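FORM 7B: Structural annotation worksheet

SECTION A. Query
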Amino acid sequence: MPVIGRYAGPRYVQIGKNLLPSSMIFGGSAFLFFIWLTDWKVTNKYIPLYGKKYAEIKRDHLIELHGLKDVEAGREE
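SECTION B. Predicted structure
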């Protein structure tokens, strides 16, 4: 267990405090990149501008099923 004690001093605590904001920004950016990369619809539909893609896909699907006139009139069901 002497290895743990080696990195538990006040110097390393201060280094950790200094690295924390950068690490959080890096982790958050990596998480957002992962969501974008996987195209996860559950979360991406709430991202402004990017989420419109799913509404357009849904509308195109409804037009294929019911026709343009019915979709524009609001009779999708």
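SECTION C. Observations
The chain has a mean pLDDT of 81. Helices lie at 2-6, 10-38, 41-44, 52-66, 68-73.

SECTION D. Sign-off
Analyst initials: ____
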